[in-house]
Amino acid sequence: MTLTREAPIRSSPRGAPRDARVAGTPLRGPTATELGSWIPGISASTRVFDALCAGMNGIARRDFVLALAGTAVAWPLAARAQQGGKIPTVGYLWHAGSADEETPYFGAIRDGFAKLGYVEGRNLKLEHRFPNELPERFKSMAAELVALNVDVLMGGSIASPYLRDATTKIPIVFMFVPDPVGMQLVQNIARPGGNITGLSNFGRDLAGKRLQFLKELVPGLSRVAFLINPNQQTTGMYVEVMRAAAAQLGLTLHTFEARSVEEMEPAFDAMVKAGMQAVTPAQGGTAFQGRAIIPKLALARHLPLCALSRETFEYGALVSYGPDQLEMCYRAAAYADKILKGAKPGDLPAEQPTKFEFLLNLKTAKALGLEVPLHLQQIADEVIE
């Protein structure tokens, strides 16, 4: 007796016509007309599922169902994780009264984070506060940012001590700070310790260089005016360092106070009455706020001005020497990024400036009746003619 092996019967989609179950009959999915007419009462979603499974054997159908089920479970979990995940928040305590007054540093901080892949509102939230140089607002706004429980706090030389006093737990990144150790922000430069680190932008060498350039540019210079805001916590340190540098160069430094932009014009008038021959401002928020008016006040009174940075030079100062402040903003964002990714601020060395810019304005020199030595023009990073 000879046994003949029958062709295997392949499974077909649920609800397929009977002849589709006959061995050797090609399997097919439902037509649009057949949907809804094969088995009364079947749901629309089931019919769509059946259509997707058309032509599959049992194993393929099973694998498809398992894969689809796994996706259905995994997708809501991923979506919930993205929606429920906490977006890192950075709080910045500025010194001026608005974002416009903080230009270009306000934009540079945002650009710094953007360069690192952060998108505001998507994977980073920035909380900004503008105390407008008012001590009581520095204190209250620092407390406000701490109460928000941000992940990292940031601030300049004026704001950083207020942030330090407001918390010992939330990491703090400072920038534009002249003396981090002297201001008791860090224990030492190499290993700050505690919850604070950041970037410095001043030193004794920098003070001496600014006065030296003025001495080379102004024949017979002996009396230099130093414009200060006595309300700023860093003023005492600036005065001490600048006086020491002036003494080494055979110069006498005289201080003139301006607590606000409105007080600057009377201060410049006082410089003229006191017989000053040149002027330079102390670093800080007040000088930055007055960056557009200070060069005009100086030029109108025939006082050569040494500015602090490119941002304070471009309005008509004679000369400027200082670190690249925009680069410092980018580096501050990089420090915050490291902390957000798990680094401890106390283990991150406080950075000191390594890139300086020497800028000269020959147009201003001509208006002042000064001849700029050729060797200074040759070593300048930029000369405005």
CATH structural class of the largest domain:
Alpha Beta
> How would you spell out the order of helices and strands?
HHEHEHEHEEHEHEHEHHEHEHEHHE
CATH architecture annotation of the largest domain: 3-Layer(aba) Sandwich
- Contiguous helical run count: 14
Sheet having the most strands: 5 strands, parallel
Helical amount: 25-40%
CATH superfamily of the largest domain: Response regulator
Q: CATH fold name of the largest domain, please?
A: Rossmann fold
Strand order of the largest sheet: 2-1-3-4-5
Distance between the first and last residues' Cα: 112 Å
Oligomeric state of the chains? Answer: single chain
Mean pLDDT: 84
Topology, please?
Blueprint: H1 44-53, H2 58-84, E1 89-93, H3 105-115, E2 125-129, H4 135-147, E3 152-155, H5 159-166, E4 172-177, E5 196-200, H6 204-217, E6 223-228, H7 235-248, E7 252-257, H8 264-273, E8 278-281, H9 285-289, H10 294-300, E9 306-307, H11 310-313, E10 319-323, H12 325-340, E11 356-361, H13 362-368, H14 374-379, E12 382-384
Parallel strand pairs: 1-2, 1-3, 3-4, 4-5, 6-7, 6-8, 9-10, 11-12
Antiparallel strand pairs: 10-11
Task: Describe the protein's architecture and organization.
With 385 residues, the protein is α/β, with parallel strands linked by helices. It folds into three domains: 66 residues, no CATH class; 135 residues, Response regulator (Rossmann fold, 3-Layer(aba) Sandwich); 149 residues, Rossmann fold, CATH 3.40.50.2300. Helix content is 39%, strand content 15%. It contains 14 helices and twelve strands. It has a five-stranded parallel beta sheet with strand order 2-1-3-4-5, sandwiched between helices. β9, α11 and β10 form a beta-alpha-beta unit. The N terminus is likely disordered.
